[in-house]
Write a structure and sequence with these properties.
single chain, alpha+beta, OB fold (Dihydrolipoamide Acetyltransferase, E2P), 2 domains, 6-stranded mixed β-sheet, about 20% helix
């Protein structure tokens, strides 16, 4: 586990957090700019001297009560920031060697060749940073952090400086980090799209405090948190590719018993595990199964909860479908007309599904 109790007063702002995070997968620190996400990350790294205690597993990196503080260079971390910060006078190979040389041979857990392969850098090794795209520079920066054989990877909005095209190029490499390395990652972001794609665990922050934290799917399905509001409200579902319809170029994605969704076929093999994102704005509700409609995904479920949305005209409704769940956004007038209430059977009509790959 990763444990942190941190306090740091500043003018107009006070950080006061207590965290117990899983030492596996990707934990996202999410919230608006200025809420303290980066301050927490820097305190975990030892770059910011907040008061309190920080422990990674059995290693105590900071314990003010015991007078213990381990400096940054002695913490087994890799740190990636928005800007790649590569050495301009060195080619990619020598930038990576800089990270590798910081680690004694006996302590190297991640081979340089593995990092190069994972980030797709084989063809870039002899190039200087100024000849690389923004996405390529960030891939080198991540590989350099991995070359230090960290036990924990800290990433501070690594995609923030990239345009949409470069972000889409880099995201699959971050997915590979997740899938192929048993390396815990703490990922700072204010982009719910990035969080929904990459994270396993979500910490929601506001004004220097933790509002809530927990598994990503559970957090996004909650109606009592600010993360549920806004145009990006929705859920993340884990699914398995169960069937492919070659004629119509569709794939059936089984989420849970009693919950299967058809979506565009991305050519993934049967049995492949995938992550889906279903936005609340793309879900409508009906009291009976509909005919004569273009919406092919109609899921029979039960209303679990209803909450006010950010605008007084709207409501959010969570529907349990089998062992999974979706959230629908509809007008309060529609909710009243359908007489929606917890426990009521409904049909959730899913218009669009995003396959996050």
């Amino acid at each position: 586990m990763i444990e942190a109790r941190l306090q740091l007063p500043r003018r107009g702002f006070r950080l006061d957090v207590a965290l117990v995070l899983p030492a596996r997968g990707v934990t996202a620190l999410f919230g608006p700019s200025g809420c303290g996400k980066t301050t927490v990350l820097r305190a975990l790294a030892g770059l910011e001297r907040a008061a309190g205690r920080v422990a990674f597993g059995t290693e105590v990196w900071q314990d003010d009560a015991a007078g213990r503080f381990v400096p940054t260079h002695r913490r087994a971390i890799g740190y990636v920031i928005q800007e790649a910060a590569l050495f301009p006078h060195l080619d990619v190979r020598r930038n990576l060697a800089y990270g590798l040389d910081r680690v004694p041979a006996a302590a190297r857990r991640i081979a340089l060749d593995q990092a190069v392969d994972l980030l797709g850098l084989g063809a870039l090794m002899n190039r200087r940073p100024e000849t690389l795209s923004g996405g390529e520079r960030q891939r080198v920066a991540i590989a350099r952090a991995l070359a230090t054989s960290p036990q924990l990877l800290l990433m501070d909005e690594p995609l923030a400086a990239l345009d949409a095209r470069r972000k889409s190029e880099l995201l699959p490499y971050l997915d590979q980090l997740h899938a192929r390395l048993q390396l815990p990652v703490i990922y700072v972001s204010h982009s719910i799209d990035e969080v929904a794609r990459l994270a396993d665990h979500l910490v929601l922050m506001e004004a220097g405090r933790v509002l809530a934290d927990g598994p990503l799917a559970d957090m996004l399905a909650r109606l009592d948190l600010p993360v549920a509001f806004g145009d990006d409200a929705g859920v993340v579902l884990d699914a398995v590719v169960a069937e492919r319809d070659a004629h119509w170029q569709l794939a059936r994605l089984d989420v849970a018993p009693g919950c299967a969704i058809w979506a565009r076929d991305h050519g993934l093999p049967i049995g492949r595990r995938v992550r889906l994102r279903v936005l609340a704005r793309d879900v409508s509700l009906a009291c009976t199964a509909q005919t004569g409609t273009s919406i092919g995904n109609q899921l029979h479920g039960t209303v679990e909860a209803i909450a006010d949305d950010a605008h007084p005209a709207l409501a959010l409704v969570r529907v349990r479908v089998g062992t999974a769940g979706v959230v629908a956004r509809l007008t309060r007038r529609s909710a009243h007309a359908l007489a929606l209430a917890p426990g009521q059977p409904v049909w959730a009509q899913v218009k669009t599904v995003a396959l996050m790959e």
